């Protein structure tokens, strides 16, 4: 093998990426989310952004079923134990619990909307499009 052929082989090896198998359904879902989120400012602002939030939640439920089940159980617990206006008692403290946010779901949202803060307006919009995370029966 000549020096030129060795150099070409070395470059080819450097450009070779290991194949990582992902289920086709996951790839299709992620591609749809990426396409839907194109042009986003990094904040949830439009109806299209709300649609993306719903798509992210559906992805979360599909690929993290145990975490989704834990979410449903936790939300049920908070709704059952709240006293008034989303306030529940934990020990001697009264806690207002508006929503339940699993870490994996937060990471998915943050990947698409890295600048989004969980302020009151965002939380209201989030629970309007993903009512499954709402941990209170009270009006927000």
Tally of DSSP helical segments: 6
Number of separate strands: 3
- How much helical structure, as a percent, in the residues? 55-70%
Specify Rg, calculated over alpha carbons.
22 Å
Structural class category = mainly alpha
Distance between the termini: 72 Å
**Overall average residue pLDDT:** 85
Name the strands of the widest sheet in spatial order.
1-2-3
Topology:
Layout: H1 3-15, H2 24-37, H3 47-63, H4 65-81, E1 82-84, E2 87-90, E3 93-96, H5 103-112, H6 120-129
Antiparallel strand pairs: 1-2, 2-3
Helix pairs in contact: 2-3, 3-4, 3-5
Keywords:
140 residues, mainly alpha, three-stranded antiparallel sheet, 3 strands, 8% strand
